[in-house]
Amino acid sequence: MSSCEAEYIAGTTAACQGVWLTRLLGELKGKQEGAIKINIDNESAIQLSKNPVFHDRSKHIDVRFHFIRECVEEGRVCVASIGTTEQLADIMTKALARERFCELRTKLGLVKLKQKCKA
Q1: Per-domain residue ranges for the chain?
Q2: What distance in Å separates the CA atoms of residue 15 and residue 86, rounded to the nearest whole number?
Q3: Nearest residue to 52 (alpha-carbon basis) of 70, 28, 75
Q4: Which residues contact 114 (CB under 8 A, 6 or more apart)?
Q5: What is the per-residue pLDDT across 97-118, written as a single tens digit (0 to 9) for each?
Q6: Please, which residues bridge with residue 37 across strands?
Q7: Inter-residue contact 36 to 77 (CB < 8 Å)
Q8: What is the mean pLDDT of residues 44-69?
Q9: Contact by Cβ (8 Å): 73, 51
């Protein structure tokens, strides 16, 4: 699987979950929220999600993963480019050096708790 395909499929999954959460929050709050912003660090995947033309590189991708295209066309999802150094999802998907791990952990708002050992 190419990195473009993997990012595209991950973006579609994020769009699906984001649309669902937006609908749920809209029902709970009584008002509709705006478009969901999805940050992707692969330019090819972004272009694939914005362009509904059938490309040779996307013909092997299952139809269910083209949901993100519909969402972008309808304005429910906004796909934006983000640099690899600013991608917070790396903490969940990659083996990172300690310094980078701590940096991303801080950006996510997580804190290190001191554990007391009971002996």
Answers
A1: 3-83
A2: 20
A3: 70
A4: none
A5: 999 998 888 888 887 777 665 6
A6: 78
A7: yes
A8: 73
A9: no
DSSP H helical segments within the chain, as ranges? Answer: 3-29, 43-50, 67-74, 90-93, 98-107
Q: What is the C-alpha separation between 61 and 9, in angstroms, rounded? A: 9
Asked whether 45 and 11 are in contact (CB, 8 A), the reply is yes
| Residue 50 pLDDT class (50, 70, 90 cuts) | confident
* C-alpha pair distances (Å), 53 with each of 56, 84, 96, 103, 104: 10, 27, 37, 39, 36
At 22, the pLDDT band (50, 70, 90 cuts) reads very high
Burial 77-94 (b: 16+ CB within 10 A, else e): bebeebeeeeeeebbeee
pTM equals: 0.72
Cα(38)–Cα(82) distance, integer angstroms: 9
